[in-house]
Each structure stands twice: as C-alpha cells, then as structure tokens.
Amino acid sequence: MTAQRTTAAERAERERAVLDLRRSGMSFDQIAAEVGYKNRSAAKKAYDRALAGTGGPEIDRAAARSQEVDRLDKLLTAVWGKAMAGELDAVREVRQISRLRIHLLGLSIAPTPVFASQSGDDDDADVPMTETEGGQVIPPSRLEQRRRELDEARRGER
Question: Looking at the whole model, is its pTM more than 0.85?
Fold first, then answer.
C-alpha cells in the first residue's frame, strides 16, 4: 500500500512538473525528454491529467494568457530601444508584438471606414469603404449585396 501511495505522489509530482514546463513554453517532446516520459503523447496525457487536477482548461487558459502577455512584454522591452532609434525591422517587431498583445487582451476595436482614395483605387475616390480584419477593402454596396444573397439562400432552405 505504501508503494502505491509513493507512486501516486511521484506521479502527481511529475504531472506538476509537466504543467510547469509547458507553461514555461516547452514542447511536449522537450517535456517528455526532461521529465522522463516515453514520448510526447505520454507527456500530453500527463499534462491533461495535471490540468484536470488544477481546475481544468479555464484556469490554465487564464494563466497561459497572462504568461503570454508577460513574454510579449519582455520581447517588447528587448526591441523598444532599437525601434525608437528608427530601425525599421525593430519597428515592425514592435507593431507585431503590439498587435498580439491587443488580441490577447481583447482590446481590438471595430474596423474604421477607409475611403477609396486612401486604398489606392481612384475610380471611386469618395465612396466610403469598410476595411476588414485581413486588410481587404470592401465597398458597402458589395456588403449589402452579400447580405441579400445570404438572406435569399436562407429563405430558399425553408
């Protein structure tokens, strides 16, 4: 009986180690080698068991988000000086890090209207456009046309 308790305690300790290593950014392959699991699948199963014992994915998701924001902050600190000195590659990195932080923290705002002349299309210079998340510029008339098509398709399904 004592051997089983020791085994259960050792198993719990290994699972905690897996959880900590995963939170530190290690892959399951790296975790398996570090903790002594046979393969990445065994490390993933240990990770899943550890999550179940800590309150599950919701708690881990919040911890992972916080950890990722901390990592991004460290990266931002590392390149900030170069970006402020005008190094274009560093400026691009700062912009990308900022986008990731905004996404992780849920700070993104609604797309802003863009005018055709700003998008480089001079044919409809004063026609307001809507910029989608992917950067594609779509005229409102096309959006309205697409809505009508979807409505017609839904009515046809009934």
Answer: no
